[in-house]
Structures are given as structure tokens and as C-alpha cells.
Design brief:
By secondary structure, this protein is an alpha+beta fold. The chain is built from four helices and 13 strands. It starts with 10 loop residues before the first strand and ends in a 10-residue tail after the last strand. Bound molecules: biotin.
């Protein structure tokens, strides 16, 4: 990808293979410090997902990590995950307008109801490393992931890796700017406008194995998922979300 296509001041490193692009951004801290280091690789040999899960990373999909100078506290990381998810939906909509794309809390992009990407945030020496994987041409086998997965190709969209990367980085730069100037409120509204399943039944599987079942009511101003159920209203800060029935993204 032409470096002129990058947001101002951002630098791109393209590798044939790496353990994890998140790890590579961390290793390059002294050689290339500061915001905007972008590392992408054709293959990851030890790609990581959320909650210590592996992220299967064969050739042909997009694997990218970006260092952002945002406080490495948990609250900033949580908010950045919504910023990145909105940017990714908008990049996919720009490259394949016919796709039915939406968000599942907190940051999974669904296409026709199946997961097509993952976002992993890690803090490192005062910055946040934002790692994004997008299933362009292949997805894990059915039954091998907690949530059904798909690829853009399987959903009828042949999107080039460089095109998606360029457009995603541009959208990310814009959304991070919006968050910095306007705070979380406009990000929250943008996320809600792209969310799947608002007002519909939802099941949140919590880290302790407990399940909260109810109606997906809202995203609050700290990024918590708000569920209303027989128990009253509950805020979920961490967990995996499932929709018992097929859902469509909110109309925009
Ligand atoms: C998830 O579990 O949904 C998050 C998956 C994040 C995968 C990406 S691929 C690029 C970056 N490098 C990694 O090792 N993980 C992230």
C-alpha cells in the first residue's frame, strides 16, 4: 500500500509472516515509538483473540495492529474498542455497500448474522495496541468458535486486503479524532446506529460462566451493555453476547 494513502504521520510495516502483529508493534517500541505505527502481516503463527483464545491466521485474510497514544487505562481501552468497531463497519460498507453489516457488543462485526472480524486491545507502556483481524477469504470451521464465523468471500464480497486496510485506517483516524474532540457520546450514538439486535432477546455469557438473559436495551456512556430482564436492569462490562434469534443491524 502506498504510504501516501496513510493518515498523516502514520507508518506502515508489511511483513510476510509474524507471530502476532500486536506483539510486533510492541517489539518496535524503541525503534519506532509514538502513535500511528501500523503493522500488517500476510500470516500470523500465534495470532491471539480475546480472553486468551487463539486467532486462526492463514494467508488471505487481514491482520493488522495499530499503536495509539491513548491512556492505557481500562476505561480508555474499552471506549477505543467501540471507536474501532464503528470504523470497521464503515470501511466494510464503503467497500461492499450491498453487505448487511452490523455490530455485536462490544466490537464484533457481523455479516448476515455471523462474525467476520475480531478486535483485540492490549495496553503497552502507556499506549494501546489495537489489533484487528478480518476474515476476507476464509473463516474457522463451523463449531470451532464460540460464535458462528464467516468470511466476506462466503457472503459474496471479494474485498482486496490493501483496499480494506487503506479505507479502515482512514475511518479509524476520523473516528479517533471524533472521540478526542467530542468525547464518547458521539461514538456511542454511532455504535448504536450500527448495532444488531437492539430491543431483541439477548444472552450474555459472563466470565464466571453465569448467563444473563433479557432484552438488549442500550449501550451506556461507559460502554456497558444494558440488558433488561426478569432480574431488572443489568449492566454487563465483560462477556460474550449471543442472539437467540437472527438479528439485523439497525437501519441508518
Ligand atoms: C477476537 O477474539 O475476536 C479478537 C481477535 C483479534 C485478532 C487480531 S488479528 C491482528 C491482531 N494480532 C493478534 O494476534 N490478534 C489481533
Amino acid at each position: 500500500m502506498d504510504s501516501k494513502a496513510l493518515p498523516p504521520g502514520w507508518r506502515l510495516v508489511t511483513l510476510p509472516e509474524v507471530d502476532s502483529t500486536n506483539e510486533e508493534v510492541k517489539r518496535r517500541e524503541s525503534a519506532d515509538p509514538g502513535e500511528g505505527l501500523v503493522v500488517t502481516a500476510a500470516i500470523q503463527t500465534a495470532g491471539r483473540g480475546r480472553r486468551g483464545r487463539p486467532w486462526n491466521s492463514p494467508a488471505g485474510n487481514l491482520y493488522v495492529s495499530i499503536r495509539l497514544s491513548i491512556g492505557d487505562d481500562l476505561a480508555s481501552a474499552a471506549r477505543l474498542s467501540f471507536v474501532a468497531a464503528v470504523a470497521l463497519v464503515d470501511a466494510l460498507k464503503a467497500t461492499a455497500p450491498h453487505l448487511s453489516v452490523g455490530l455485536k457488543w462490544p466490537n464484533d462485526v457481523l455479516v448476515n448474522g455471523s462474525k467476520v472480524s475480531g478486535i483485540l486491545l492490549e495496553s503497552h507502556n502507556g499506549s494501546i495496541i489495537l489489533g484487528v483481524g478480518v476474515n476476507l477469504i476464509s473463516a474457522p470451521e463451523p463449531g470451532s468458535t464460540p460464535y458462528p464465523a464467516t468470511s466476506l468471500r462466503a457472503e459474496g464480497a471479494d474485498i482486496g486486503r490493501d483496499d480494506l486496510l487503506r479505507i479502515f485506517l482512514g475511518e479509524l483516524f476520523k473516528m479517533v479524532g471524533l472521540w478526542r474532540t467530542g468525547g464518547f457520546a458521539p461514538v456511542r450514538l454511532a455504535w448504536l446506529a450500527r448495532a444488531c439486535g437492539i430491543g431483541k432477546p439477548v444472552v450474555a455469557r459472563l466470565q464466571n460462566g453465569e448467563e444473563a438473559t433479557g432484552t438488549f436495551a442500550d449501550l451506556d456512556d461507559e460502554g456497558a451493555l444494558v440488558i433488561e430482564g426478569a432480574f431488572g436492569t443489568r449492566r454487563i462490562l465483560a462477556g460474550d453476547v449471543f442472539f437467540p434469534h437472527p438479528t439485523a443491524p439497525a437501519s441508518r
